[in-house]
TrEMBL record:
Residues 55-246 form the Rho-GAP domain. Residues 1-42 form the Phorbol-ester/DAG-type domain. GO terms for molecular function: GTPase activator activity; metal ion binding. This is RGAP1 protein. One of its GO terms (biological process) is Rho protein signal transduction. The keyword Metal-binding applies. One of its GO terms (cellular component) is centralspindlin complex. InterPro entries: C1-like_sf (IPR046349), PKC_DAG/PE (IPR002219), Rho_GTPase_activation_prot (IPR008936), RhoGAP_dom (IPR000198). Keywords: Metal-binding, Zinc.
């Protein structure tokens, strides 16, 4: 190391003259001793230098599976590293100006993302993730499959509802499906943290409008009113699906995707 830089795993500086490990694909830099804690999911740099300001999820996804955008992986990794003891995770808003600044910075960076360890307030990182998902041209569940998700979640019988939801999830575009799986595994871990006080109901209220949205880019006021409670129901039902179902899409257990 010639110029001291922060370790991508522990966040502390790697000092001048020390040996470090750097990934040739995603450029992650870390202490040799931090190698074991390194997230195994590597997101190669995209061919273009910057991401679009808005687009469908596939525009941000890497070329090799699991097709989870680097921005999503980095935000989730940071939240799981130091946010699972924060009360109201994803419910408490971060400073709006900082959220906008960091989202802009990450989008400009493309695949070579700056470290989020320098963001003091973890709620800002949560805000960046939510803002990125809200800013997509269509929600994660897509406009065309939106009605099918709502119908599946409305089925009174739990087993039948789960079967229908699994079927609809499998019809999502690969990047949307993989990212949804990655997020569900993450949100489950958040729901299991007593310190966060964010159970499945709270998380479904926060992420219903963000992940499910509406069936068109310009919904009517009536559609917004009717969709809102059903959006939350969809996310709650998705979070009730077995973790093994979601792990099947991202190809590894959540514990291996983020540092413990």
């Amino acid at each position: 190391v010639i110029r001291p830089e922060p370790c991508g795993v522990c966040g502390s500086r790697i000092r001048f003259g020390k040996t470090a490990i750097k990934c040739c694909q995603c450029q992650l830099l870390l202490h040799s001793k931090c190698r074991e804690q390194c997230p195994s999911l590597c997101v190669p740099r995209p061919h273009h230098h910057a991401w679009p300001r808005e687009g469908v999820l596939a525009d941000f996804a890497p070329s090799t599976p699991p097709l989870v955008p680097a921005l999503v992986v980095q935000c989730v990794t940071e939240v799981e590293t130091r946010g699972l003891t924060e009360t109201g995770l994803y419910r408490v808003p971060g400073a709006e100006q900082l959220v906008r600044e960091w989202k802009r910075k990450l989008l400009r960076a493309g695949g070579a993302l700056p470290a989020l360890s320098s963001v003091t307030d973890i709620h800002v990182v949560c805000g960046v993730l939510k803002d990125f998902l809200r800013g997509l041209k269509e929600p994660l569940v897509t406009f065309s499959l939106h009605p099918a998700f709502l119908r599946a979640a409305d089925i009174p019988d739990d087993a039948a509802s789960d079967t229908a939801l699994r079927h609809v999830v499998s019809k999502l575009p690969p990047a949307n499906r993989d990212t949804l799986a990655f997020l569900m595994l993450h949100l489950f871990r958040v729901s299991q943290s007593p310190a966060c006080k964010m159970d499945v109901l709270n998380l479904s209220r926060v992420f219903g409008p963000t992940l499910v949205g509406h069936s068109s880019a310009n919904p009517t006021p009536l559609a917004i009113m009717e969709d809102t409670p059903r959006q939350c129901k969809v996310v709650a039902r998705l979070l009730s699906l077995p973790l093994s179902f979601w792990r099947g899409f991202v190809g590894t257990e959540q514990e291996n995707l983020v540092p413990i």
